[in-house]
């Protein structure tokens, strides 16, 4: 079939490796000092890697290529995870130690990690007369959280209740963790600044690969934020999915002002 796929100009490529962690599907590797496409079937052609190449060595072309295969992506990420992470950020700082089984070396910013929120719910020891500024604990179960960085094949998404929230919602909503995040995997994005088509395709892939139990969309009460709901509904249509969607609207003072099932 003829479709869009990445191509790499080896004359321009200097092997910096910045494109590798930007590819959510793990389709790029550094081989003999140059970025290489592992296989056509693990490249979705969206070009998330393009903006991360300082040498402008990566382009999108239309050519004969095998269809994109999410099953192959899952196998690719499993088989090459350790090597991928080691090559992803050659000059990265030492990896942070996560409280979960998904740790390892590589780039801490895009490395998949899982957490157990229950481990974080440890009571603070403080004098009885000293008020605690907050008794709330993090309900986050994984990293990364940005929609652009979270791969559709992330184990935390399998059978999950997924919260897709606009970037501004956690800032506006004081009880975001307890009211919205608890019990959910989360993906954050901004419909104004993110690539809408890319978001639609990412969410569609999440629906097709995982047996999602439901999606909650949390957005701000501003016109541009309607785009995140549009992305979810269009992804559901393209995936021919019947996953239930719950739409929540928060105003700029953090108050939940509307909620509906779609």
Could you walk me through the main structural features you see in this protein, from its secondary elements to its overall organization?
- This protein is an alpha/beta fold.
- The chain has 2 domains: 2-88, Alpha-Beta Plaits, CATH 3.30.70.20; 139-261, Rossmann fold.
- It is built from 8 helices and 11 strands.
- The chain has helices at residues 19-22, 70-79, 81-88, 117-120, 169-172, 176-181, 196-209, 226-238, and strands spanning 2-8, 28-31, 34-37, 58-64, 113-114, 142-143, 161-166, 185-189, 214-220, 245-250, 256-261.
- Strand 10 (245-250) and strand 11 (256-261) form a beta hairpin.
- Helix 7 (196-209) packs across helix 8 (226-238).
- The longest helix is centred in the C-terminal third of the chain and has 14 residues, at 196-209.
Considering the chains and any ligands shown, give keywords for the structure:
single chain; Alpha-Beta Plaits; two-stranded antiparallel sheet; Rossmann fold; five-stranded mixed β-sheet; elongated; alpha/beta; 262 residues; 8 helices
Brief digest:
By secondary structure, this protein is α/β, with parallel strands linked by helices.
Termini gap? 35 Å
Oligomer: single chain
Q: Note the total helix count.
A: 8
Sketch the major β-sheet: 5 strands, mixed
Order of helices and strands: EHEEEHHEHEEHHEHEHEE
Provide the fold topology.
Layout: E1 2-8, H1 19-22, E2 28-31, E3 34-37, E4 58-64, H2 70-79, H3 81-88, E5 113-114, H4 117-120, E6 142-143, E7 161-166, H5 169-172, H6 176-181, E8 185-189, H7 196-209, E9 214-220, H8 226-238, E10 245-250, E11 256-261
Parallel strand pairs: 7-8, 7-9, 9-10
Antiparallel strand pairs: 1-4, 2-3, 5-6, 10-11
Helix pairs in contact: 7-8
């Amino acid at each position: 079939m003829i479709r869009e796929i990445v191509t790499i100009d080896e004359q321009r490529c200097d092997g910096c490796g910045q494109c590798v962690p930007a590819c959510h599907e793990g389709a790029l590797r550094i081989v003999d000092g140059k970025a290489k496409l592992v296989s056509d079937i693990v490249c979705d052609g969206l070009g998330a890697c393009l903006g991360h190449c300082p040498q402008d060595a990566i382009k999108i072309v239309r050519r004969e290529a095998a269809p994109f295969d999410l099953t192959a992506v899952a196998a690719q990420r499993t088989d090459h995870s350790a090597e991928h992470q080691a090559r992803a950020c050659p000059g990265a700082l030492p990896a942070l130690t996560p409280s979960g089984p998904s740790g390892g070396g590589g780039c801490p910013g895009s490395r998949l990690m899982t957490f157990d929120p229950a481990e974080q719910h440890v009571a603070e020891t403080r004098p009885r007369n000293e008020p605690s500024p907050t008794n709330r604990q993090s309900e986050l179960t994984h990293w990364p959280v940005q929609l652009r960085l979270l791969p559709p094949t992330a184990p935390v998404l399998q059978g999950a209740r997924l919260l897709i929230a606009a970037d501004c919602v956690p800032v506006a909503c004081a009880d975001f963790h307890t009211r919205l995040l608890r019990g959910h995997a989360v993906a954050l994005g901004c419909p104004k600044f993110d690539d809408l088509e890319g978001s639609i395709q990412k969410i569609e892939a999440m629906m097709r690969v995982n047996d999602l139990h439901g999606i909650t969309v949390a957005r701000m009460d501003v016109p541009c934020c309607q785009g995140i709901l549009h992305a979810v509904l269009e992804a559901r249509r393209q995936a021919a999915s019947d996953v239930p969607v719950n739409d929540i609207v928060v105003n700029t003072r953090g108050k939940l002002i509307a909620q509906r099932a779609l």
